[in-house]
Specification:
53% of the residues lie in helices and 14% in strands. It has a five-stranded parallel beta sheet with strand order 2-1-3-4-5, sandwiched between helices. By secondary structure, it is α/β, with parallel strands linked by helices.
Length: 161
């Protein structure tokens, strides 16, 4: 199963982005980080828009740097417009989440980075497992539906004899 995470961040916070990525090594989770996921000469805006549209979880690294970024607020806007689940990680003390996501509970990375990154990993892996379970349940329901249809077809055939 494919589970995609989009990471929104300021390039000034790439160290924290790398730490988050390292938390997800060894999982089946695909992490989109523009710095590493977009090749030179690729259309950056198109690649980012596509990645946001396709992601299962939008992870925001919110910092003073992100507040002044030209890209991060636009990425947040796209994610909220697409009703993506957003996991905010606040890197700096004393800053509030922006506009439409102010009401979201966030992980305060600035208080204890190690603990917050472990919690972020648990939340991301949990979302991945939840998607896996939903897909498995849907597949099982489809099998049961097909089995009932087969039984119904057999009974219809049997009663027509």
């Amino acid at each position: 199963m494919n589970f995609k995470v989009f990471v929104s961040y300021s390039t000034h916070d790439i160290t924290q982005v790398t730490q988050l990525q390292q938390q997800l090594i060894g999982t089946s989770i695909e992490v989109f980080v523009a710095e590493h996921s977009v090749a030179p000469s690729q259309d950056l805006a198109l690649a980012i828009t596509t990645a946001i549209e396709q992601c299962d979880l939008f992870v925001l690294l919110w910092s003073k740097n992100a507040q002044t970024s030209a890209w991060v607020p636009q990425e947040i806007g796209k994610a909220t417009a697409l009703k993506k689940k957003i996991l905010p990680l606040v890197l700096d003390d004393g800053i509030n989440l922006p506009g439409f996501i102010q009401n979201l509970k966030y992980l305060p990375v600035h208080q204890n980075p190690t603990v917050a990154l472990v919690q972020a990993r648990q939340i991301i892996v949990g979302a991945y497992e939840q998607k896996n379970n939903q897909i498995a349940a849907a597949a099982q329901a489809e099998k049961e539906k097909l089995a009932l249809m087969g039984i119904g077809a057999f009974l219809l055939w049997a009663f027509s004899k």
